[in-house]
Amino acid sequence: MSKQPVSRRQFLNYTLTGVGGFMAAGMLMPMVRFAVDPVLKGEAAGDFHPTQQKVADLTDVPVRVDFSYEQTDAWYTSEVTSTAWVYKNDKGEVIALSPICKHLGCTVSWEGNEHKNQFFCPCHNGLYEKNGKNVPGTPPLKPLDVYPTAEKDGLLQLGKPQANNIV
Amino acid sequence: MNWNGKETALFQQQKEYIDTAMVPLVPADFGAGMIQSAEQYEFVQLLVVFLERQFKGRVLTTPPHAYLTDSPNRLAEAKKWSEKLRGAGFKHVFFFTADSAWRDKEEELNASVIWIPSVPLGDMDDSIKYSIIENQAKQIVNIIVQKWQGYAE
């Protein structure tokens, strides 16, 4: 009893520092988490949306691929369905074209209304070649947009449509 | 084109290309028929949204025209819409309704009436809901295209 390893003063010092440290950490941790949050989020996987289309099943004839994903519009979250026309070109690369007509935004269809080997827009008879190039003399002034494509587990994934770069 | 600020502005610029108006024609019943009237609204609205996506560049979706089911002058009111739309330069006016009372009113309205029996979508799974709407809409797509071609000839 005569020899005290820890004096009262020391004991109080330790406890105060400990408790104070915890309190400071409690305050600082969330702040640090906020500060580094953008770094931790990283890339949202390039924003590719999965589809049900098997890449191996694609041929040189464009097929319609529907896919849906969630979209937030102000406070309203909805399931959006999008469509792509997908085929393999001569080199075996997967080409996915947006069906949105570059004239006023109707939906084009492959070989619609008996137009062989072309995309047809029913609204104002717009025509596009297979690679999306607009046919001169019809209303559209730009080629169809292209989706970036990816493959995961043999299934096709589509990104956000971009201006046509394959024409 | 949808009925919002941005797309109606585009409509004003591109008037010569947009010659078709789509009017959802829906009953408003605040009594015993409320559920049915709401179901019809839901169905017609989904259908019109689908069609608008297909034909965005040539159609303008108007705000829905709602009428009270027991209103005596509902025919006259709908007729006014059709007249106003024709006056605004629309060559084709389509009314979409699930109320069979409008089926034989095409001539009086001077517009096409597309009557679709409404399916109660209530608790259905989204994917089933879409496939039902899509099947219905595909037939209507043909009707609209035929009307357009009839005009061109």
Describe the structure.
The complex is a heterodimer of chains A (167) and B (153). With 167 residues, chain A is of the alpha+beta class. Chain A has two domains: 1-42; 47-158, Rieske Iron-sulfur Protein, CATH 2.102.10. Chain A is built from one helix and ten strands; from the N terminus they run αββββββββββ. In chain A, the strands form three sheets. A four-stranded antiparallel beta sheet of chain A has the order 2-3-4-8, with no helix packed on it. In chain A, strands 1-10-9 form a three-stranded antiparallel beta sheet, with no helix packed on it. With 153 residues, chain B is an alpha/beta fold. In chain B, β1, α2 (34-54) and β2 (59-61) form a beta-alpha-beta unit. Chains A and B meet through loops of A and α5 of B.
Please name the two chains that share the biggest interface, counting residues whose Cβ lies under 8 Å from a Cβ on the partner chain: A-B, 13 and 14 residues
Widest sheet: strand ordering of chain A = 2-3-4-8
Instruction: Give the SSE order of chain A as H and E letters.
Output: HEEEEEEEEEE
What is the rounded Rg of chain B? 15 Å
The tally of structural domains of chain B comes to 1
Question: CATH superfamily name of the largest domain in chain A?
Answer: Rieske [2Fe-2S] iron-sulphur domain
Q: Given the helix and strand composition of chain A, which structural class is it?
A: alpha+beta
